[in-house]
Amino acid sequence: MYARVAVFEGASPENIEHNIGVIREAEGPPPGVPGSRIIALGDKRNGTLIMIGFFDSEDDLRQADAMLNDMAPERPMGQRSAVHLCEVLLERTAPSA
User: Fold this and answer.
1) Residue 23 above 90 pLDDT?
2) How many CA atoms lie within 13 A of 4 on its CB side?
3) pLDDT computed for residue 47 by the predictor
4) What integer pLDDT is reported at residue 88 of this predicted model?
C-alpha cells in the first residue's frame, strides 16, 4: 500500500468546507485517478488541510500524483506547502473492547 500526503496552508474555513463537500459528494476519485481511500485532516481555525490518498501500487501512486498535481480545486485550499509520496509501513487498529 502507498500513500500521497498533500499539505495545504492558508485556506479559509469556507474553502475547506466547500472542497471537502465536493469530495464527500463524489462517487469516487476524480476520473482516471486510481485510489482506494482518502482521508482529510483539517484545522480550520489555522487554515491547514492534510489530504492523504491511498493506492494499491507504486505505479498507481505515481499516476495519481501526476494527475493531482495538474488539478486545481474550484476554490483554492490555500498554498500547497508539501507533497510526500510514501509507502505505508504500518497500519494498525486497536482491538475492540
Assistant:
1) no
2) 24
3) 92
4) 95
